[in-house]
Amino acid sequence: MADNTDATVHKTPPRNSTLSADSEAGLKSTPLAVGSAAVSEHISTVGVEVNDVRPWIARDVQNFEKCEADTMLQELLARCTGSSQNLSGSQKSKLLETALNAVLPICNVGAVAQEIKGHLTDFCDIEREPLSYTPFVKAANCALRELSKVNVDGIPAFKIDDKTNVLLHVNDPKPIYQDHQDKQSERKPDLVVVSHETALGKKSHETQESQVLTETACKSPKDNFQWTDIRSTLELKRTRKFLTHPPSAYKTDYVVPSPSAQYMEYRKDANGPAKPTGSISATGSAQTPHETSNELRPSSQLSRGVKRKRGGNDEDRTEEKEPTKIPAIVQNGLYVAEMFAAHIARQHVISFIVNNDNIYIWVCDRETTIQGAAINFVQDLPRWLVLLLIMQRMGYEQWGLNRVFEPEPGFSGKVMVEVENTQIDLELDVKSKERVTHFGIRGRATTVFPVKSKALSDLQRDPCFPNESSELVAKLYWPEETRQSEPDILNEVYKIAQTDLDVRGHVPELVWFHKFEDTSTSKIRVALGLKDAEQAEQGSRVLYIIVFRKLIPITTLSGEEFLAAWWQVVKCHRALWKGGVLHRDVSPSNLMVYRLRGQYIGVLNDYDLSSFKRDGPRGLERTGTVPFMAANLLSPAGIAGKVEHVYAHDAESLIWVLTWVCLRYEGGILLSKNRPLEEWLKMDASMCADKKAGFWSAKIGDVCPSGSHKTSWKLVEKCFDGIHSLYLPSGYRKLTDESAFQLLLEGPMLEHESRRRTYS
Length: 760
Prior knowledge:
Residues 1-25, 268-324 are annotated as: Disordered. The protein is of the alpha+beta class. The protein is 31% helix and 16% strand.
């Protein structure tokens, strides 16, 4: 399962998890939905503009779950205690009450209270967003300094440690870069939460803490921050000129926001880009630099720290297609995706949006996004200070880092996983060029990289797997809990392989796996009252690690070598379908090979979306990868889950993979430019279905395969004759599985072999 640079992009993402049992009963397949799972893997194929990524992130964040402000604060406080799961609702409520009373004196008494109020008054009087950064940061950091003296029963006491103590820091307009395979992103969050050590940077020995809190943090950093060092981000928006000043005294009662300000809603205007409800037009207001610079482009086009020219001659600018204003919740979503991508198996990301004088807490994980109701930090200062106290006392795990794989930010080294009193050592090569990364929020978020393990290397090899490689790869991902697990699917696959030679040696070798039970995304939703215990697993995800014997992407092959391996996969897929194992996710990245005695052997890989024929559709995640899915499944009925997923659909997918590789790879390497079908990577299901119909009916004669795949093109054309015959004016032509195999695959392949023997 090595990196396949051009493979799967539009993984069809999770559908709405609110479908009733009655509505699911009528489904013939899991319906198509939207979200960043579509682009969460192989980001290098998406394109160089963030426009290709942004719409998918937008779909993740616009369908958020809602949570009351105090409920969110109670749960985050409880998590600081380290025993959140053991606290009752009344205990969490009491904890918040205690914390509010503990911070109240800071709000009302003494010079510090006046200093904080002074900064908040300055914030209220400033009309332009960029100028509001400084008073906001000063108020927050002044409060954090005073909160270090506060003790709340059950909450860990403050410890002086520059690695863990946090502060708010202005970031904009300094870019933060991150590599995503062969692309590099550039983001400019307004404010960030970082450790004192990160804020001090290289001059930590020269700068006093008071300078960091009062001066340095109010300016953009001299050196670019790294996403691995960012605890969180704050996106500020200013749509009102005048904000009400702080009151003379504060109480602990919740200040209820206006109905329009209770949550940040995503709304698409008919004549402009999407923006949150409750905001007014920003026309004429100052535009901060980050609003035109969120993009992905080839790494070779960027040098870290080099400023890009803005304005002036068009030739001095990088061409961009971003709307003038990106909605705040979409900008926040892009930053969340970056924070996820910067860490291994991150559980969740906590981020913030400040809209005028309201702050909104966002908790994002691989299931959905959750937004806390507004806290007016000017009028309800005690709750803001409780939030700052939470940020100050949270450990790495509470911020979302995985304690096994990343005990501290940026950790890279050997980790130990304890399974039934046995220690499994894993040395993950997270910086490998072969690493397959993800970019997105919701979905499986698959990450694959080389791994070494003495314990696993010492295991006895199974003679049923002739792969000669001794190298291993680890796959970390977040499948749905209700879906049949990949290890269970592979167990059935291996049973079939014992008696079927078309399967034996043509499936991946699972070496070891582990399910991290405590990572279920259902836990926070039950704690917040968003789910009850009975429906907890519906739509929830959990972290798995699976270690496989290393394979090679089939796209590295050409000519007859490629075609022979592809046909072995076709036969393996057919045999498994007969045996009751439905793969349902045929794409280039899932077709692999290995070497055996000088020959390449084809492997049908990746069974995390597979199912058993006897079970029917399970889980909430659509099975398929848009550019390679049968057009019939991309129809309106297919999108709604009203089309039964039959063998002919997967057969069509195998043909689309064959076509894709023949057109886009030369000598085993992805073409660098003028790649046919490129636009399919960026289309939704219905648009892609239209393009497919046009391709097989007319356009196939207008495209040419690469030089290294010319010998396969006649086979492609013959396969499409079969596909074309299925799509009739009266509807989709239904065939038996065997008839579909003969028409779409076996017949064309026999004709190809006959023609090859004639001319050889």
